[in-house]
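pasting Flagellar hook-filament junction protein FlgL for the record, 314 residues
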Amino acid sequence: MRLSSNQIFSQRVDNITSSQSKWMTEGNKISSGRRVEKPSDDPMAASQAVMVKQSESRNQQYATARGFAKNSMSLQMSLASQMVNITTKIQETLVAAGNDATLSDEDRSSLAEQLAGLKDQLVGIGNTKDGVGRYIFAGFQSDKPPFVADATGKITYQGGDKQITQKVDSNIEMVTNFTGIETLQSSGSKGTEPDIFNALDDAITALREPLTGKPQADRDAALDKIDAANRINRATLNNISSVEAKLGLQLQELDNLDDLGADTSLRNAKRLSELRDLDWTQAISDYYQEESVLQASYKVFNDMKEMSMFKMYR
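structre below
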């Protein structure tokens, strides 16, 4: 097949254009530090890189979820710890009220006021809000206070009965918010009302009732109410401590999951680097090789232009 001078000239121009494109491509790789800039550079590596990035995206989503879970759990654990302190003080007050037969009516009235104040503190903690105004112990009904007093001072629970949970890993879901009813419910009790408040109300009423000059039966009845409140308070204290312990264990597990997530991120970053990043030694060698090819193409083209057969077509 015979080639015309114009065809030969066009071929040389095409060679220069192709060599220049390859040389610039190698230069862009060195500039970006990436071996794979687009799928056509290495379809298999590009496909695997997409899967690795998706894996890391899920990993980061769970890391964010764990952050929210930690905040909720830490706050509720702190409040549970305060509840433990208050119920411990309630127990001490009830023991003092039930064990000392020499207490005067004034002493008993003073203990009643202490119990009333501790009860109010317990209700106050149960109605604590988080940073965005949601009631922490109200379950999914977090827009209103879970513990409400009626006109007589009786406390009822009006929050939700379902725990708030959060998925913190691909197959792990945790309780981030225990409800107020399960936190303040004494072990073994049933129903939807925390009986600790009713028991305290009965004990407070008994302590406020003067016993001077009253028969022993009245004293025994008052002691029975105090003893009942003490039993229920101890059970409630144990229940709150159990919730506190569960939150503590979950927080430890979240720390472990964070460590695993960090390791996963490192592995994903390493794999992405292997798939996309340059082998610098090879890249620099390829760059200078393409540069040499381009220079050779320029030389051939310039030599060709000086031939007499091409000068005729200038």
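The chain has a mean pLDDT of 82.
Residues 70 and 251 are 7 Å apart (CA to CA).
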